[in-house]
Amino acid sequence: MSSLAHLIAVQNHAVYSSDCQQLAQQLQLQLVETEPSTPFVLIVDERGVAIQQTGPKAPGPVRVDFLAGASEHRRKQGGGELIVKAVAGDKQNKPTVLDATAGLGRDSFVLASCGYPVTLCERSPLIAALLADGLQRAAKADEVELRNIVNNMRLINTNAVEYMQLLGSQSVDAVVIDPMFPPSKKSALVKKEMQVFHQLVGADNDSEALIEQALLTARHRVVVKRPKKAEHLAARKPNFSVEGKAIRFDIYSLKAYGK
Ligand SMILES: C[S@@+](CC[C@H](N)C(=O)[O-])C[C@H]1O[C@@H](n2cnc3c(N)ncnc32)[C@H](O)[C@@H]1O
Question: What's the pLDDT tens digit per position in 183-193?
Answer without folding.
Answer: 555 544 557 78
